[in-house]
Amino acid sequence: MAKDHYVAQTYLKSFSVEHKEGFVNAIRKNDLKQLNAIPVKSICYKIDWGTNSYFPNNPRVIEDYLKPFESKWTTCIKALSDEKFDIEIKYLMSGYMAYLKTYTPTATRLGEKGLSEVVRQTYEVLERKELLNPDSKYASIIKKIQKGGGVRVDVKTDYAKALGVQSLYSILQWHLRFPWRILMNDTSIPFITSDNPVCWQYWNEHYYPDLYFPITPKIALLIHPTREVNTTVVDASMAINLEGVKLFNTLVVKCAEDLVIFSKDFGVEALVREFKDWRVEKLVTKLPHEKGTLIWTQDRPVNNIEQKS
């Protein structure tokens, strides 16, 4: 059995506590337990997470994908620190971000829900069609199912992950299409990260969200997608102020599946306590369209307690 880190140790080591490389601080959202100076090898892993039965010829295909990206992560960080990143660095970082967006437990959970909604919608269309058929052989069965609460669609985790693998390179290419803003943090508060480090920041309901990704306590990335692809993409480094750091750290806590990870404690426990009930969920909007329904989804952090009430 393999101990697979869905967030690479190479990445997490950048958030090491001072003078203890490979050790980080963490707080769990589910019980607010604080873990001080714990080894990165002890977190963000699942047994055989990288083994997938839907690739019988190569069940560990995800390892082949990750090798060129993980091995160059330190090189990428140095380039960003020196403000000398180029298209090669951008490609390497895009590859690892694509993995984090598709293969973490958070991404897989959201993928399962999205797939189940599509299947459910397809079934409901067939169900309505069958009920309108006067010669239907299944109308009575359908009505019994409806009385019992309707159908439930369960998607296999491996299937959701397999679809994620198939989308990796298209997501990588999406990252390359838009301007990058490297956020340089010289404030008194460091950037933090989590077990779900790639976050969507929704500034406005009517615009595409930005992608935010903390890279080290001093460096983070913001990708701003536009409706039209800019053929003259200009990437840039820029300083971020204290309010900006606080905003993005709050976003990280909201998007964390459970574990918030940091190098230096500046009151992280209070931040986690305030947003412990938040998690990224797949919000589904159904819009009637001709004879069917359009399904529009967003992956965004929500307060689960408020949502259930």
Number of domains: 1
Report the strand count: 13
Spatial strand sequence of the major β-sheet: 7-8-9-5-10
| Overall spatial form | globular
Mean pLDDT: 90
Instruction: Report the C-alpha radius of gyration, rounded.
Output: 22 Å
Number of helices: 11
Order of helices and strands: EHEEEHHHHHHHEEEEEEHEHEEH
Oligomer classification = single chain
Main sheet attributes: strand count, strand direction, barrel closure: 5 strands, mixed
Low-confidence blocks of residues: none
How large a portion of the residues is in β-strands, by DSSP E?
Answer: 15-25%
Percent helix = 25-40%
What structural category characterises the helix and strand content? Answer: alpha+beta
Gap between N and C termini: 41 Å
